[in-house]
């Protein structure tokens, strides 16, 4: 049988990290089994769902290369299907009408809670033979005893006691179908074979299996994925992490890095850390997914992104960087040496935004010096700056090698520890102590520019005194 998976988001918010991870695992599982991956928009909650969120979710997935094999379907457009299924359950005798009022249900709950029992519908309308009316809901006759057992690819055998499950509502009193009914009917009508979703849905599974059985549908394969946790080990949320995929793209994390990071949320393959989508399709095993919650580690994502950025051919890297340069108003094309500058700085930070920020002083005048750095290294460095300025102006060849040699000679002549020599020059050139090796940094500018930056630093020092 061909494997068919689905990602079934409720469009009540933008695409978040946990959702993308679920979509990715569904996609990879379908592809590695030469099957199909589908998307179903679960928008029956009209008040909380929006088309805007739906578009955001579909675009986010498309951005990382996760496209469904068929056009997505929307539950809000399929209510006839659900009503037909409800009729089928009524005919089979597996459901009954219930007219318990809200007050009755509240009372029932209060009594159960007072007696220390789990609150659940007690089935009191089950044998009353009530008729359909605008005051009745349709409930599923759930077996009262016995166990419901299913196999989960991640969790192994999962057992629920039927006595713990109450007779859930299939149709509301206005005739509208409930979430569980829609979910089950869609999985069947879309030909889904494998349900891969977050562990928060685990307790829904026995209820949904009972509906499937009442409808005579074939069983499905399940995989409930561990929750994605923040660094505080609480469920990932806006409070403990950036949860929106778009926010990561806006910072300059690559799509492939996000896929790599998401794949590692609950799954690993020995020591291997770097994965692209194709590797995953080859290597991923649902059975190897861990049960314990998976922590979203920002430092790991940075490390991964650094790696993916470094692996890009230079032209690709540059093209990806250009929008971030524009955000910082860097007009790189005016500088003939821009390719060398970009190449020298390309791994200075783990994100494109960070690299772009570091590039600012190479394309425009140095802004105010980093105060701490200036206090520590620039103060008292007048003789060093003047010496170096002279030395550099005496060079016959202006390249990294000869600049390095000049710096070395200066260090010996002045007998200074490296930071005392290098840091003042670095601050003069870039405003901070953060830059590539000094010879390379200097070689990225022409001599006029070096002179003018050293002069500006000397000027700063004369004013500071
Ligand atoms: N619509 C559910 C959600 O967004 C997913 C249901 C499912 O995968 O079965 O959490």
UniProtKB/TrEMBL annotation:
Q: Name one GO biological process term.
A: glutamyl-tRNA aminoacylation
Domain Glutamyl/glutaminyl-tRNA synthetase class Ib catalytic stretches: 4-303
Q: Which residues bind ATP?
A: 238
Q: Where is this motif: 'KMSKS' region?
A: 235-239
- Motif range ('HIGH' region): 9-19
Which Enzyme Commission numbers does its entry carry? 6.1.1.17
Write down any Gene Ontology CC term.
Answer: cytosol
Every copy of the Aminoacyl-tRNA synthetase class I anticodon-binding domain together lies at 319-458
Instruction: Provide the GO MF annotations for this entry.
Output: ATP binding; glutamate-tRNA ligase activity; tRNA binding; zinc ion binding
Q: Which UniProt keywords apply?
A: Aminoacyl-tRNA synthetase, ATP-binding, Cytoplasm, Ligase, Nucleotide-binding, Protein biosynthesis
Reaction(s) catalysed (UniProt annotation): tRNA(Glu) + L-glutamate + ATP = L-glutamyl-tRNA(Glu) + AMP + diphosphate
Which PROSITE patterns did the record assign? AA_TRNA_LIGASE_I
- Where does this polypeptide localize? Cytoplasm
Per UniProt, what is one Pfam family of this protein?
A: Anticodon_2
Q: Which HAMAP family match?
A: Glu_tRNA_synth_type1 (MF_00022)
The subunit field of the Swiss-Prot or TrEMBL record says: Monomer.
Family the UniProt entry places it in: Belongs to the class-I aminoacyl-tRNA synthetase family. Glutamate--tRNA ligase type 1 subfamily.
Its biological purpose is as follows: Catalyzes the attachment of glutamate to tRNA(Glu) in a two-step reaction: glutamate is first activated by ATP to form Glu-AMP and then transferred to the acceptor end of tRNA(Glu).
Q: What name appears for this protein in its UniProt entry?
A: Glutamate--tRNA ligase
Instruction: Give the species this sequence originates from.
Output: SAR86 cluster bacterium
């Amino acid at each position: 049988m061909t494997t068919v998976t689905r990602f079934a988001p409720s469009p009540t918010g933008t695409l978040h990290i946990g959702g993308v991870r679920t979509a990715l695992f569904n996609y990879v599982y379908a592809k590695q089994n030469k099957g199909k991956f589908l998307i179903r928009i679960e928008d029956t909650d009209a008040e909380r769902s929006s088309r805007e969120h739906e578009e955001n979710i579909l675009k986010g997935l498309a951005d990382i290369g996760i496209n469904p094999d068929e056009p997505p379907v929307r539950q809000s457009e399929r209510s006839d299907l659900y009503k037909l299924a409800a009729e089928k359950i009524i005919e089979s005798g597996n459901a009954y009408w219930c007219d318990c009022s809200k007050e009755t249900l509240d009372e029932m709950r209060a009594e159960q809670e007072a007696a220390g029992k789990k609150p659940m519908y007690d089935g009191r309308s089950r044998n009353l033979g009530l008729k359909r009316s605008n005051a009745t809901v349709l409930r599923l006759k759930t077996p009262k005893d016995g166990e419901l057992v299913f196999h989960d690819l991640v969790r192994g055998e999962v057992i629920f006691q039927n006595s713990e499950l109450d007779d859930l509502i299939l149709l509301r009193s206005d005739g509208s179908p409930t979430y569980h009914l829609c979910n089950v009917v869609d999985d069947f009508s879309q030909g889904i074979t494998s349900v891969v979703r977050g562990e928060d849905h685990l307790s829904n599974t026995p209820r949904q299996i009972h509906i499937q059985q009442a409808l005579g549908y074939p069983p499905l394969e399940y995989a409930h994925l561990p929750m994605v946790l923040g660094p505080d080990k609480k469920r990932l949320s806006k409070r403990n992490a950036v949860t929106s995929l778009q926010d990561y793209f806006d910072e300059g994390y690559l799509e492939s890095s996000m896929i790599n990071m998401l794949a590692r949320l609950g799954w690993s393959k020995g020591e291997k850390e770097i994965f692209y989508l194709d590797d995953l399709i080859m290597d991923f095993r649902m059975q190897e997914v861990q049960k314990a919650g998976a922590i979203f580690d920002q430092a790991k994502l940075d490390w991964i992104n650094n790696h993916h950025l470094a692996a890009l051919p230079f032209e690709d890297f540059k093209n990806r960087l250009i929008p971030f340069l524009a955000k910082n108003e860097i007009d790189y094309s005016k500088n003939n040496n821009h390719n060398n500058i970009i190449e020298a700085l390309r791994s200075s930070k783990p994100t494109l935004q960070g690299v772009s920020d570091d590039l600012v002083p190479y394309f425009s005048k140095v802004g105010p010096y980093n105060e701490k750095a200036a206090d520590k290294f620039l103060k008292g460095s007048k003789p060093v700056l003047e010496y170096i300025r002279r030395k550099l102006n005496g060079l016959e060849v202006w390249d990294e090698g000869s600049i390095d040699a000049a710096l070395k000679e200066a260090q010996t002549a002045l007998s200074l520890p490296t930071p005392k020599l290098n840091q003042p020059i670095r601050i003069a050139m870039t405003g901070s102590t953060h830059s590539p090796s000094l010879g390379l940094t200097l070689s990225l500018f022409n001599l006029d520019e070096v002179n003018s930056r050293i002069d500006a630093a000397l000027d700063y020092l004369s004013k500071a005194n």
